[in-house]
Design a protein that fits this description.
Elements (H helix, E strand, L loop, with lengths): L1 H12 L8 H28 L6 H20 L6 H14 L8 H30 L1
Helix pairs in contact: 1-2, 2-3, 4-5
């Protein structure tokens, strides 16, 4: 979090802030820092999923960290709407039991998630169209 906040401050110092008030600038920097932290955690989760280790002990440590990252991704409040879809990706991965055959309830849950994603996309597109018309 400290490192992400420092990167956010550095990024925003090179970014024109337009007519932002000091409070708006602080909020922007805070959101950007939370975004960087979220992205780093999600990317680590993806990397860990793709890593195969030789020893059982190393594999267990990797699996534990993968689950920690998944928990962080799922419990971190989304700053931007696209983060919700990355949370869905984590949920879908665990519903699929890492590629194993799913039960009927797991398939139903995965179908429900897909349906919710479609609804979110549809409502988001409708909102954008209304905003463009105004």
């Amino acid at each position: 979090p400290q490192e992400a906040r420092a990167k956010a401050k550095e990024f925003t110092s090179h970014t024109p802030n337009g007519n932002r008030t000091e409070e708006e600038q602080k909020q922007f920097e805070s959101e950007y820092a939370r975004r960087l932290q979220f992205e780093a955690t999600f990317n680590e989760w993806l990397r860990l999923r793709a890593t195969d280790l030789d020893s059982e002990e190393a594999e267990e440590a990797r699996y534990d960290r993968e689950n920690e990252c998944a928990d962080l991704v799922l419990t971190t409040p989304a700053v931007y709407d696209w983060m919700i879809f990355q949370k869905f990706e984590v949920i879908e991965h665990y519903l699929a039991k890492h590629g194993e055959v799913c039960s009927g309830m797991e398939l139903m849950a995965a179908q429900a998630l897909a349906s919710i994603k479609i609804d979110l996309l549809r409502f988001g597109l409708q909102r954008e169209q209304k905003e463009q018309q105004q």
